[in-house]
Design goal:
Blueprint (H helix, E strand, L loop, with lengths): L4 E2 L2 E3 L2 E3 L6 E5 L7 E6 L3 H20 L2 H17 L1 H11 L4 H21 L7 E3 L5 E9 L2 E5 L7 H12 L3 E5 L5 H13 L7 E3 L4 H10 L3 E7 L2 H14 L2 E5 L4 E5 L5 H13 L9 E7 L3 H13 L19 H16 L4 E4 L18 E4 L6 H4 L6 E7 L2 H9 L3 E2 L1 E5 L3 H10 L4 E4 L15 E2 L17 E9 L11 H7 L1
Parallel strand pairs: 1-5, 8-9, 8-11, 9-10, 11-12, 13-14, 13-19, 14-17, 16-17, 19-20
Antiparallel strand pairs: 2-3, 4-5, 6-7, 7-22, 15-16, 18-21
Length: 504
């Protein structure tokens, strides 16, 4: 085993380990004997120190012309591209993703750098006619201030980029708290920004536990916005705390995504989509396919094909190029998923068609691996249908029509991603309108968002904001309305000029 790396804090342009701070060990989920890195269990005072640095840097950064900010982000993207394989391997070892998915994670950050850098020459506002003569009206974007970012382990480079690059291009300064399961990934992301020439204090990294650093973010009055990706329960807690201190909150929370397969669908394509959507990243995506809603005419054939394919998926360490399904990220997540499998077994009439066990074998014995698991006979009232599992577990529901399929899909507390497989354009367009979700795919899996399009969901998935795309700038900017009166005299708006004339 290699000597563990050190994933330190980065505050005010310096890498440091807080005096006296204990070490949190980041464990390789594919082989729990390996400590990938050690990171500080930082106290709340470290968060406050990082915020002070970000606040000092804010004035100069907000006045830096956006094209100059963009040049730094563009260079960060180039550095990430140069290091893609290296960082992809770190993701494979820390998060457990297959190496191809790890490199894909980095590619999303590269794409996001390109997108955000392009916005440096746009950041468009609006102009509008005035109701008065010789008067000009316009709006411009302004930064908010210090932004706190709380990011998860399942996309440990892409999600910091989604949030961080848009925050930076708008002129904000940032404090990032990455997941304690993937601290080295967070450090590698920040290192790319540092090496790209970002001024000190503009982007700060504080490692540690959410219960300490996340709570300190909520309490700190200098932070003006918190953007978090996490569970719905955690998101609601953060939103409540932000409400008490007057902060903005952007929540990207849970999902219970469904793929609908109609009787006219291309079944080969639908099976490919269900396999990738349900078992890619071991089901550990907020957009993962957790429910499969199938028309009764093709249900049995599709289930037969799907279970045969799922049983042949290759489990193993993410660092192995042959691996198709990696481990769960940690022991508690593994226990949680196994508990849901037990619940599924116990729920009335659900049938375990494949999987349902901790995986065994030479490549998987030392890690947190669970076999790809499929239940059929699932009813809408069952917990495995309604609750987010966040693991390689797929629940299959049989329906008799498209209307029933969409009603079944919508019968859920979440509304992030969805998919419909049909060859009938009329059915596709009707479903697209009726589905309650922030993302709808037609003849594609529920995973696979592109960075130039808005990302986010409805209902329990979030609080109405979107990440990525042009619309992702909105949460990180304020609108300022500007009026320029060049008439040379006092002009009174919102005055009843007819009444004035009568009085005169």
């Amino acid at each position: 085993m290699t000597t563990p790396a050190k994933a330190m804090n980065y505050i005010d342009g310096e890498w440091s380990w807080p005096t006296g701070a204990a070490a949190i060990k980041s464990i390789n989920p594919a082989d729990t004997r390996e400590v990938v890195c050690e990171t500080p269990d930082s106290p709340a005072a470290e968060l406050d120190r990082a915020v002070e640095a970000a606040a000092r840097a804010y004035s100069a950064w907000r006045r830096t012309p956006p094209p100059k900010r963009a040049a730094i982000l563009r260079r960060a993207g180039e550095i990430l591209a140069e290091r893609k394989q290296q960082i992809g391997e770190v993701i494979a070892r820390e998060a457990g993703k297959p190496i191809a998915e790890g490199c894909g994670d980095v590619q999303e950050a590269i794409d996001m750098a390109e997108l955000a850098a392009g916005e440096g020459r746009r950041l468009y506002g609006d102009t509008a006619p005035s109701e008065l003569p010789n008067k000009f009206c316009m709006t411009v974007r302004e930064p908010i201030g210090v932004c706190g970012l709380i990011t998860p382990w399942n996309f440990p480079v892409a999600i910091p980029a989604w949030k961080g690059f848009h925050a930076l291009i708008c002129g904000n300064t940032v404090v990032l708290k990455p997941a304690s399961d993937t601290p080295l990934c967070g450090a590698e992301f920040v290192r790319a920004l540092v090496d790209a020439g970002l001024p000190k204090g503009v982007f700060n990294l504080v490692q540690g536990r959410g219960s300490v650093i996340g709570e300190a973010m909520c309490r700190n009055s200098t932070i003006r916005l918190i953007s978090i990706t996490g569970s719905t329960e955690t998101g609601c807690h953060v939103a409540a705390e932000c409400g008490r201190t007057g902060k903005r909150a952007s929540l990207e929370c849970g999902g219970k995504n469904a793929e609908v397969v109609m009787d006219d669908a291309d079944l080969d394509l639908a099976v490919d989509g269900a396999l990738w959507g349900a078992f890619g990243t071991s089901g550990q995506r907020c957009t993962a396919t957790s429910r499969l809603i199938v028309h009764e005419k093709v249900h049995d054939e599709l289930v037969e094909r799907l279970t045969a394919r799922a049983a042949k998926l290759r489990l193993g360490p993410g660092i192995d190029p042959a691996t198709e399904v990696g481990p769960l990220v940690n022991e508690s997540q593994c226990r949680r998923v196994m508990e849901y499998i037990r619940i599924g077994r116990d729920e009335d009439k659900a049938v375990l068609r494949c999987g349902g066990r901790r995986a065994s074998g030479e490549k998987v014995d030392k890690g947190w691996f669970i076999e790809p698991t499929i239940f059929t006979g699932v009813k809408r009232s069952m917990r495995i249908f309604q609750e987010e599992i966040f693991g390689p577990v797929l629940s299959v529901v049989k329906v008799g029509s498209l209307e029933e399929a969409v009603e079944t899909l919508n019968d859920c507390a979440y509304g992030l991603s969805s998919a419909v497989y049909t060859r009938d354009i009329n059915k596709a367009l009707w479903a697209m309108r009726e589905i309650e979700a922030g993302i709808v795919y037609v003849n594609g899996p529920t995973i696979g968002a592109e960075v130039h399009m808005p990302f986010g969901g409805v209902k329990g998935t979030g609080n109405g904001h979107r990440e990525a795309g042009r619309i992702g700038l909105d949460i990180f900017s304020e609108w300022k309305t500007v009026y320029i009166d060049y008439s040379g005299k006092l002009q009174r708006a919102q005055i009843d000029t007819d009444k004035i004339l009568e009085q005169g």
